[in-house]
Amino acid sequence: MELTVTAALLSTALLLVNLASILLASLKLKRPGRIAPPAGKAPPVSIVVPSRGVEPFAEETLERAFSLDWPRYELIFCVAHADDPVARPVTDAIARFPAVPARLLVGDDHISGNPKLNNCVKGWEAARHRWVILADSNVLMPRDYVQHLMAAWRPDTGLVCSTPIGSRPDGFWAEVECAFLNTLQARWQYTGEAIGLGFAQGKSMLWDKPMLDANGGIRALAAEIAEDAAATKLVNGLGLRVNLVASPFEQPLGFRTLGEIWSRQARWARLRRVTFPLFFAPEILVGAAVPLALALVAAAGAGFSLSATALVVLVVAYLPECALASAKSWHLSLRMVPAMMARDCILPIVWARGWLSGAVDWRGNTMTIHTSAVAELEETPSGA
């Protein structure tokens, strides 16, 4: 009987924490909405875009970058190798939009085991303006992209970020990717901000360049294997805050396979494990798997129907997630609940993988991430 009561209480507690996280995140998040261009003099902005390979929706994301509703900005595209397939579409876009100052820089500065950070160094050093945005190439920038980032800056801010929101999934496993990115990872990141635990996210990062340069510059982000983890610790160490935009930006997904999802989630889990181990440890309790297992143990001990118990737990777990996605205009379809269930089956395995060493893949780069947050990087040829 004691085991039955304990399992029931733990299951209920975890479901309540899950619900609380959704409520807290919903208070921080806003539905996508346009922000008008600044009426007065707006500061010029440099946008550094590290690129590797031609991704789905590359033409659209490039066009969006050249169509921002901000008076003065420059685009600095960075590739590690001149023969990277993405170099041609970038140079074509630069030619099509001559009104926007833009450059393509080629070269690789090996300051860390993080290939993305290495690719960004030359762009950071070439940036002409005080405000610098590091933006992943697969971010679908809205016209008011800069406005959203600037609007989140406060006097005590050291960095503004946006977590990616998955959109346009093609196939079931892309739906699973949406379930990971949106109502799980984004939700918990905004929950963290709501309780004063702001964590950086590398998809879109707005920096005050003189502030970062005074504290080691972009090379200071090599202190951790993940640049966003290093950014979080650097900013917090200065007594400043990491803020998130109120309406996070889209990342169109296209087609995804189970192998691609596993590769990304395993890498991210390992990175979280070595950079923030105390926050990573309780991740095993996130999702429906653990509360469902506990509820079934309690139901079996009390003689309740296992199928009815499972149904109640799944409704309590997933209906609020769907409500959050609907309220914030995120992707939602009839396949999302099965996708959430698949995600929560994968989560415990990903969590266990996070505690193990060994090689992971980072966009064509094979690396071994050690417990010291250092990586050994073996780069494959560009475009592989």
TrEMBL record:
GO molecular function per UniProt = ceramide glucosyltransferase activity
Instruction: Give the main localization category.
Output: membrane
* Protein's UniProt keywords contain Glycosyltransferase: yes
Tell me where it resides. Answer: Membrane
As for membrane topology, the entry says: Multi-pass membrane protein
**Transmembrane segment boundaries:** 6-27, 274-300, 306-327
Query: A cellular component term (GO) from this record?
Result: membrane
Kindly give the InterPro entries that the UniProt entry links to this protein: Ceramide_glucosylTrfase (IPR025993), Nucleotide-diphossugar_trans (IPR029044)
Instruction: State the Gene3D superfamilies in the record.
Output: Spore Coat Polysaccharide Biosynthesis Protein SpsA, Chain A
What keywords are annotated for this sequence in UniProt?
Answer: Glycosyltransferase, Membrane, Transferase, Transmembrane, Transmembrane helix
Enumerate the CDD domains for this protein: Glucosylceramide_synthase (cd02520)
Query: One Pfam family name from the record?
Result: Glyco_transf_21
One BP term from GO:
glucosylceramide biosynthetic process
UniProt pathway: Sphingolipid metabolism; Lipid metabolism; sphingolipid metabolism
The UniProt entry, under SUPFAM superfamilies, shows: Nucleotide-diphospho-sugar transferases
Descriptive protein name = Ceramide glucosyltransferase
Its source organism is: Mesorhizobium wenxiniae
State the taxonomy lineage: Bacteria, Pseudomonadati, Pseudomonadota, Alphaproteobacteria, Hyphomicrobiales
